[in-house]
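Per your request, structure below.
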């Protein structure tokens, strides 16, 4: 059997099979949600799921290899990328977390010897945060590994032409999302429909996106 035939009947290797989106909505989705688009919702939900899966690869790696949380890893990367000590409020702003959350993360990193608080050059009331040599060694190992994984995942599934097209399309979605952030959401009314009893753990439960098709 040829590779194409194996892909058609689903018996090829994962790389040979035709990829299908992880999330689908029901056939009556647009009847239940007037003004919605089943295709648009599937695109939206699958973009979010893809992002979760991709960042999940990095999060699991940093946790398993270095016992670093996602926030802890990002703090180290932010300081290392700045090439200078930073105020905790600056790190919190770049990480988009509260100062209280940032304090807790920094306390954990400091106990592990990965960051240190140092006096501010111009304001004695303030402290700056710097990474330690141990943290720098982790970042120097972790980031190249991340970028190699990114190459493996993306280049292993998309051609160079596909990657450029993906960037072009994602940029359009990003621009639309930025514009939508300043536009109030439209109000709608959900239509009642007959609901069959659900069985916990069913395929529909596993594949339905949050708030879609339920």
């Amino acid at each position: 059997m040829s590779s194409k035939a194996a892909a058609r009947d689903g018996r090829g290797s994962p790389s040979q099979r035709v990829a299908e989106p992880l999330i689908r909505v029901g056939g009556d989705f647009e009847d239940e949600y007037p003004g919605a688009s089943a295709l648009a919702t599937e695109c939206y939900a699958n973009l979010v799921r893809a992002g979760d899966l991709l960042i999940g690869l990095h999060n699991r790696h940093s946790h398993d290899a270095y016992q670093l949380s996602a926030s802890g890893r990002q703090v180290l990367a932010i300081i290392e990328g700045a090439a200078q000590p930073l105020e905790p409020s600056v790190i919190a702003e770049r990480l988009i977390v509260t100062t209280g959350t940032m304090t807790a993360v920094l306390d954990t990193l400091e106990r592990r010897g990965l960051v240190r608080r140092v006096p501010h050059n111009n304001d004695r009331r303030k402290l700056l945060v710097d990474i330690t040599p141990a943290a720098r060694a982790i970042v120097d190992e972790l980031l190249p590994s991340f970028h190699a994984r990114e190459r493996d995942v993306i280049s292993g599934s998309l051609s160079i032409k596909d990657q450029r097209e993906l960037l072009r399309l994602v940029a359009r979605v990003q621009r639309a999302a930025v514009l939508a952030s300043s536009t109030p959401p439209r109000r709608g009314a959900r239509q009642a429909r007959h609901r069959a009893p659900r069985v916990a753990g069913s395929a529909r439960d596993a594949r339905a996106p949050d708030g879609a098709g339920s």
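The chain is about 55% helix and 5% strand.

Regards,
D.
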